[in-house]
Protein 1
Amino acid sequence: MAATLLDGAAVAREVYSQLGQRVQTLVAAGVRPGLAAIQVGNHAASTIYIRRKVKACAETGVYSEIHQLESDCPESTLLATIDKLNHHRGIHGILLQLPLPQHFDAGRIMQSIAVEKDVDGFNWQNLGALVAGRPRFTPCTPSGIIALLERYEVRIEGRNAVVVGRSTEVGKPMALMLIARSATVSVCNSKTRDLRQFTSIADILVVAAGRPLLVTADMIKPGAAVVDVGINRLPDGRVCGDVDFAGASQVASLLSPVPGGVGPMTVAMVIANTVSAAEHHAQARAA
Ligand code: NAD
């Protein structure tokens, strides 16, 4: 059996088309959604990710700007930049591109981004709202995965879902979003004793460990929907996910490719959150 591809690139294009219409409505009402991206240093992958987000803004009619800071800038410079953007009326979303250089406490700095402009969903108030079952801005990678599963009509309620990885950015919020949709969820980490014992019962398997080829075909339940979040660069320069794609595609019913699966959906959700933030701003202005 060859799995159907969870084609994130194609679904992201559909999302952009819908967002473009919402942007037009906002612009007609005098509000152009605006996204500010902050990059500290010049981490090569971060530069690529920011360019993708800026391109997606252009495609949907969202205004964007990049704030480039030196990698050795003091924390006060970064906080001052965030503060200025928090008060900027034309900016509705602020994106602090991770990773930050070592001397910054990224988790703490994220808390200085205004909750209503936190389009990454990493502010603890937004994460707390997700825990409480009242989500507002949710982290973009798991939101994109949910949107992808919904687009392919994958039933979540009542299914066994297994998330490999428990990071605050991906694994934990992914588990919470699956719980909110009434899946029975297991969350694995690097200390999990027998990973296969969990992966092999998963109707929905989300792998976000950052370990190339961690999940092989024999670890997958036949017919499962498998979402590969990992992005790993191999010594020969090729990019691969955490799942053995060739093997998994013979066992899974649905499988996301790397690249072209989760990555484009993550970018699309950043833009979606920015448009939502602008809509909220427009409603508050009209009230
Ligand atoms: P992270 O390093 O913060 O967390 C990795 C998690 O995987 C940890 O909880 C760790 O305990 C777990 N883990 C590691 N080895 C394991 C093993 N052998 N068995 C079980 N669990 C194991 O990483 P992250 O930020 O969550 O990202 C994970 C991967 O997803 C990375 O490759 C990253 O590049 C990628 N990523 C992709 C996107 C996208 O848009 N496609 C977005 C974010 C992250």
Protein 2
Amino acid sequence: MRIDIVTLFPAMFEGFVNSSIIKRAIENNYVEVNIVDLREYTTNKHKKVDDTPYGGGAGMVLTCQPVFDCVKALRKEDTKVLMMTPQGKTYKQQTAYEFAKMTHIIILCGHYEGFDERIRTLVDYEVSLGDYVLTGGETASMVIADSIIRLIDGVIEKESHENDSFSNGLLEYPQYTKPRVYEGLEVPEVLCNGNHKEIAIWKHKESLRKTYFKRPDLLENYSLSEQEAKWIEEFKNKE
Ligand code: ADE
């Protein structure tokens, strides 16, 4: 997979591509991450990439020319173009799975007041992180790229993301590590007894418990098994 991130602030990505799992994924050729400086594509002799909005209003708007030329230069047959914008569809784990199947993604990061509306004709997906406004799409694009890269086969252990929160519609069960008792706080006995069947049932129930108490909205679209419905009754009685 190749991910091209188009930005006016390439320096913001230095830490992202040079740290931890993302760095290793790049070094081991699971993914190619290309940070593209939009300013390189402007034909303006002062390297200007934005202008004042028609009809008036605050701030500056990214102009069409550099973005159109940049996408034209980068696009291949199987490319999908993503635009980071608070006007996009709210990003979810299910979308990360969908994007992780793609072979080439271009992510457009906006800055200032946003993009000239005509730039949207180049775009396949408008993506928002949530209902708030960032100073630019750069931090948002790192979130998107990170969530995609970790799903590429081989980047992390498959089991790690199969148990992720949201992967099965529920939050992930609680995790513990050594020591077994810390300042009087104990690890649940069942996790230490080596009975894998019991452990699997406990994880499933605790995953449901977390979801019920922290994100009940996730259960609205979740079809409960008979056992899960019984557990929910049990949680309700303890509320
Ligand atoms: N750019 C500015 N705000 C954003 C948001 N909430 N999501 C994605 N891109 C953005």
Protein 3
Amino acid sequence: MKIICLAKNYVAHVKEFDSVVPAEPVFFMKHENCIVRNNKPFYYPEFSENIHYEVEVVLKISKVGKNIEKKFAHRYFDEIGLGIDFTARDLQNMAKDKGNPWEIAKSFDYSAPLSDFIPVSAVNDVNKLDFRLDVNGSTVQEGNTELMIFPLDVQISYISRFITLKTGDLLFTGTPAGVGPVKIGDRLEAYLEEKKMLDFNVK
Ligand code: MG
């Protein structure tokens, strides 16, 4: 199983980093080691002093596909959930400065708390889904999948040109604006529409 993550996929988030809206999807990988399930706590790692939350809609790939045409992309996932793309922003900035890959900033152990999945058929329109993240009871990120720069079908089509998608692969579809640091003791709750999907603590 692999985890593919979109970067820079919401205009407001791109702007909060003074970055440029990309002409094509930008993606990177996390590893299986990143996954944390069942609302287990996130343990703040010793190698960073600036871990940021990024709430994201996650698709679970349901069949093998390569060079998937955009019009058929919706056939390649049937479940959705939410995840947090925890990012060691200090290490990421260092990597960016040096032109190095992002692995230690993005793909460290336990950096991707993941909700249970619900069938796509349980939501009205997967391309118009509200989601949000609350930290300590206050909403810090709000998004709607309609606001993606590269919609789900474009992501799937683009990624599958380079990397074969396989059953069970996960696609983190990018974070909206409002990313920020977590600290030990924080409680994170993430909602897809009105359904609470994640509820865990930082320890
Ligand atoms: Mg992200």
